Amino acid sequence: MTALINLAGLLLIALIISWFWLSQAGGRQRKQDATVSEASVIVKNGVYDPPTLHARAGQTLTLHFDRQDPSPCAEQVIFHGLGVSEFLDSGKVTTVTLQNPPKGEYRFTCQMQMYQGRLIVD
Amino acid sequence: MASYQLPISGATCKGCARKISSALTAVPGVDDVQVDLEHQQAHVSGSSALSEAALQDAIAEAGYAPAEQHSDIPAADSHENPNADRSMQDISLNITGATCASCVRTIEQALRSTRGVKQAEMNFADRTARISGTANATTLIKAVEAAGYGASEMQPEDDGSEQEALEQAHYRQLLKHMWLGLGLGVPLMAWGLLGGDMMVRPGQPSQWIWLAIGLLTLGVLATAGRHFFIGAWKAFRNHNANMDTLIALGTGAAWLYSIVVVIVPGVLPEAARHVYFEASAMIIGLINLGQALEVRARGKTSAAVKRLLDLGAKTARVIRDGPNQQREELDIPVEQVQTGDHVRVRPGEKIAVDGEVQEGESRIDESMLTGEPMPVEKSVGDKVSAGTINQAGTLIYRATAVGKDTALSQIVALVKKAQGSKPPIGRLADQVSAVFVPTIMIIAVISALAWFNFGPEPRLTHMLISATTVLIIACPCALGLATPMSVMVGVGKAAEHGILIRQGEALQTSSKLDTIVLDKTGTITEGKPAVIAILCADGQQENTLLQLAASLENGSEHPLAMAVLREAERRDLTLSEATRFEAINGKGVTAIVNGQRYRLGNQRWLESEGINVSLSSDSLTQKGATPLFLASEGTLLGIIGVADRIKADSREAIARLREAGMKVIMITGDIQASADAIAAEAGVDEVMAEVLPEDKANKVKALQQQGRIVAMVGDGINDAPALAQADVGFAIGTGTDVAIESASITLMGGSLHGVADAMEISSATVRNIKQNLFGAFIYNSLGVPVAAGVLYPFTGSLLSPVIAGAAMSLSSVTVVTNANRLRLFKPHRDPS
């Protein structure tokens, strides 16, 4: 019994590491279908939907954030590494324009980094 | 069995196809629907009783009917509103549900086919539609809704009231959830504290009571805690973990353990048959309370932007041509004012949009934008800015910028943008935040295992308490909020004093400055020099010299040239035409006047051109004047002394900067002697004179190479390279011109006190961030080990998950409240 519980605990740790840090497969499946220059992102229930966006380098990317979540955590979106942030009005669509983002992978999050998304520019 | 082929219109994406398909499938008798986007057709098969008209109606209701069918829908509606306003008007709608370009076409088509609509255009970027015609808003909204989208009338101006109402609603909902959680949790906890039995005794009636309480707690989790569980699940599916994850895991684990105890107590040792329903309910209640308090406190952090938004006028009195070619004055909503409109503003009224004065004279209070307390005189040709207040006299001005283009709107946009930027000090917290939640989950498991392997009995209970408490006490919010909240309040506070901070980084660097380089002209001095004396060479006359100098400088906007031109105008001198004009940056100007080449510039340049400068300019330089040497071909004709007064408060502000430990350096293109005279009057530490404009950046660089952290203060245009080179560039006295890209901080007022104010606000903000970060790090790094039970050997008990919940909910409120303290900050303007 003791060994079983210890094994279960270690397995749980391995699962946490694998699911949250090593694997992003689910996120990739849920990304938008193709590279876009314009996309809508719904901000609701603690997540960005879709959580992963693909864009082409050298193109202006226009994102429409539809904030349906009244939680103050959702009030701002920050694109790390691009120096872009925007306040999102509750119940409204806010347009964020990224001028020619360079190639790379960028995180976009709320102020507290609880809402997390990825922008892949290639 | 029947099949139909129906024409559709405006459908180009899968979303449109889905809409059409679901509209048709909803028609009774339809078995199968295929939408052919390429040929704009829908193929429908179904029972023979199907009516084609019903299918066409379904397509029309979905908004994809060919135009002739579609027009009936809104038209019918217009009959419902016989009293609708029939005058021509512009209506703007917010559109929802539009996801592709073809949606735009569908919506535009729906609007255009509405009776009374003259023109309809939709802007996909901001999801708005603008409609001109006689149709009223209700009719238009129904037309959009009939097309399968949502619409609401755009409010004349988003002054934040809608947001406030939503925040209020959210606040009330959080409080309701708090009462639900605490309503169950407090009596349960009181029962436990007052000696009530929290253990489950198998076979006794109390087991049933605990089951009922367990179900009630589940009800609380499913209502008041619903958003945590949904958030946690959605984040989990995206391989993310957030605060909701911690709360859902903590409260879920406590409930699950307790319900196992209630339902199958036999699987657990007797000592471990304790229920923790009160912990689940209390934590949910307390965290909702914490979030409600946070909503309240956060509202205050954006007070500065709200105040700026409130500055805007709601209406404007425009002067337009009436039906009989007579000018008539109309009070219209400010968003309907167009560029080129003539607007009348009466004493005490706000300027509605940016403009240029066409008639009248008045004084305008611009303090709300520039921080300058003194009203500014305005007359024909002067610029006025939206949001400022006309004090005396009536003005008529021509609108030059409206809506998002006004200086006020740009200031608001700039402040909002800066409020979202982070200084480097927050990067560590960012890095920690990114891995925080999974790390805490791992710590919770390790803690549980440690208690299981090494802890005393009841081990299972200890496992549960320690893991739950670790999950609940950890607060990623405090960490994540520490920097942005302070930046938000600090940047807003600065804006209230006419200081626009572009980047969070500038906030941090400003607090570390040790050297300030001040440009002389326009920064220390008024920037409006005047001719104070003219020294003539033998045989020359003052007016002849001035006339020649003014002819050379005619058309130039250099401050020294303006002084010469003003003096020539004052003396009523007639200027001659100058040809082959050439301006040599930092040296002077040369041109041909009356067939002869003249030069007007500094001594060094003239000497380098081989001109013998026989006159002494000492008497001018001793007065702080800049000597302008005038020469014809190889002969010096005379010297014009131009002096610029130092600003009334420059000396006081420089003393304030020096008191703050800054080394204050004045930089100027003036010759050493006149620079020294100004420097002595201003009270700076050091003077860099005779510096060419392009060398200013090099001087700043040289100071940086000495290890100094340098701020450069200049006008933002001539000094752009130096401002960009400096660690922090301050553009001073820009008025409402906020588009000074080279400066990281723009001072809309002209006073040097703005530099000192900006530094004080920056220091206070960085101090506040440090306090927040320190508090958040300490809280988490002490709280988590205590929750895991490191104090158990000394105290003999574990931290209650309820206490952890209270601590967690208060920690983020504390951060926001501490950031709000910055709102009380006042710059220290009195150097004594």
From TrEMBL, chain A:
Residues 13-121 form the EfeO-type cupredoxin-like domain. InterPro entries: Cupredoxin (IPR008972), EfeO_Cupredoxin (IPR028096). Pfam families: Cupredoxin_1 (PF13473). This is EfeO-type cupredoxin-like domain-containing protein. It comes from Alcanivorax nanhaiticus.
TrEMBL record, chain B:
It catalyses: Cu(+)(in) + ATP + H2O = Cu(+)(out) + ADP + phosphate + H(+). It comes from Alcanivorax nanhaiticus. This is Copper-exporting P-type ATPase. The keyword Secreted does not apply. The keyword DNA-binding does not apply. One of its GO terms (molecular function) is P-type monovalent copper transporter activity. It is found in: Cell membrane. Keywords: ATP-binding, Cell membrane, Copper, Copper transport, Ion transport, Magnesium, Membrane, Metal-binding, Nucleotide-binding, Phosphoprotein, Repeat, Translocase, Transmembrane, Transmembrane helix, Transport. Residues 2-67, 89-152 form the HMA domain. It holds the Pfam family Hydrolase. PROSITE patterns: ATPASE_E1_E2 (PS00154), HMA_1 (PS01047), HMA_2 (PS50846). GO terms for cellular component: plasma membrane. InterPro entries: ATPase_P-typ_cyto_dom_N, ATPase_P-typ_P_site, ATPase_P-typ_TM_dom_sf, ATPase_P-typ_transduc_dom_A_sf, ATPase_P-type_domA, HAD-like_sf, HAD_sf, Heavy-metal-associated_CS.
